Amino acid sequence: LAGVHYARGDFDAATAGYEPAAAALRATGAAEEEAQVAGNLAVVHYDRGDYASAARDFERILERPPRAPTAIRAINLQNFAAASAVTSTLRRVGPAGAAFLCAPIP
Is the pTM value of this prediction over 0.70? Predict the structure, then answer.
């Protein structure tokens, strides 16, 4: 259901679905499934513009033992790099530059 909320652009509802799912999977020891749900949550953070949280979440996933399939780890690595780059750029340009970079294109 969280994926449906995400697809509809309801990031709050998607977060509300992914967070407890990740916690439940973590509690049961389902590491691969939890990593996938955590990656989905990181994508929600990224798409809502919370690049620092997205980078943090992707980095946490990548710090885990490599149990996930190589393709999933590669996607998470790519997403971590993108979120880190955006976070770094926004810090470097400051609030005025960030407002300009994030402004809608007419």
Answer: no
